[in-house]
Design brief:
298 residues, D-amino Acid Aminotransferase, Chain A, domain 1, D-amino Acid Aminotransferase, Chain A, domain 2, seven-stranded antiparallel beta sheet, binds pyridoxal-5'-phosphate
């Protein structure tokens, strides 16, 4: 049995006891929304903001979390304690449409199902590369249009992201950046993308998840006096950036040190990237934007 804890069907169970029906439409049709936060040093990061984004994703998909925000928070806290990783955890929650009523294909008749799990903290590219930086591949798989599946609602439509990852691996690169239909940068599999040129940061303003770590970098830029822009970002701006980085709950601020094998700058994490990385993690160590897990337990 590996470390972690799952809350499913109203119960806390071990990871290998957590089961979902193959007839759940979350599995059959990716009819599911989710959210992921993390805990660090006993604090859950931006819990209220994650619950708010989760509720927005549920509304956007016409799903309903059977638990209130307070109940969800208490479940996540207890799951984290049972997983014994309050000091560094990855906290996932989702709501699936659930099972079709017998003989029906009407999604309105499904009873929506909540589940959550907590496992030790996950670094998107492994801890070493998430800190040292990666070589990103400019994928020619287009990011699914937000007119089809709105990227602001955190969802399981990952077919495009995963095919882009395969392209990256086949080119011996670490991960992929996807473009939107308009040819501008969208995002990557599990991360937002930032470019830095002449001391100014920029990240796409559309066709991407409104990442909580992206929002954190916006706040850090404000606190550190670093200029930033939310706007369309052309892929050439990533290719020609002084530095670049990705943001994700699974790693915080992560350097991108090469694009299609071509090093950015001197090929090491950039100065602003390192400053934002240090700022993010030193604040997380100190409980920045955190809710104390013990305060959430009944
Ligand atoms: C497609 C996508 N974009 C961006 C992100 C980064 O979002 P956050 O900073 O909230 O983890 C994620 C996280 O899983 C994601 O799946």
């Amino acid at each position: 049995m590996s470390a972690g804890c799952v809350h499913i069907n109203g119960e806390f169970v071990e990871l290998d006891e957590a089961k979902i029906s193959i007839f759940d439409t979350g599995f059959l049709h990716s009819d599911v929304v989710y959210d992921v936060t993390s805990s660090w040093q006993g604090y859950i990061f931006k819990l209220d903001q994650h619950l708010e984004r989760f509720a927005t994703s549920c509304d956007g998909f016409r799903l309903k979390n059977p638990y209130s925000d307070a109940e969800t928070a208490a479940i996540l806290a207890e799951c984290t304690v049972r997983a014994e990783c309050e000091d560094a955890s990855f906290i996932h929650m989702h709501v699936t449409r659930g099972l079709y009523a017998e003989g029906s294909r009407d999604p309105r008749l499904c009873e929506n199902q909540f589940a959550a799990y907590v496992v030790p903290y996950v670094w998107l590219w492994g801890e070493e590369k998430s800190k040292a930086g990666i070589n990103i591949h400019m994928a020619d798989v287009e990011r699914i249009s937000s007119k089809a599946v709105d990227a602001r609602y955190k969802n399981f439509h990952w077919g495009d992201l995963i095919q882009a990852q395969y392209q990256a691996y086949e080119a011996n690169r670490d991960d992929a950046a996807l473009l939107a239909a308009d040819g501008n940068l969208a995002e990557g599999p599990g991360f937002n993308i930032w470019v830095v040129k002449d001391g100014k940061c920029a990240t796409p303003d559309a066709n991407c998840l409104l990442g909580m770590s992206r929002q954190s970098v916006i706040e850090l830029c404000g606190m550190e006096g670093i200029p930033f822009e939310l706007r369309k970002v052309h892929p050439d701006e990533l290719r020609e950036a002084d530095e670049a980085f990705a943001t994700s709950t699974a790693g915080g601020v992560m350097p991108i040190t090469a694009v299609d094998d071509k090093p950015l700058g001197n090929g090491a994490p950039g100065i602003l990237t390192s400053r934002l990385f240090d700022s993010y993690w030193s604040r997380r160590e100190a409980g920045w934007c955190g809710t104390k897990i013990s305060d959430l337990l009944n």
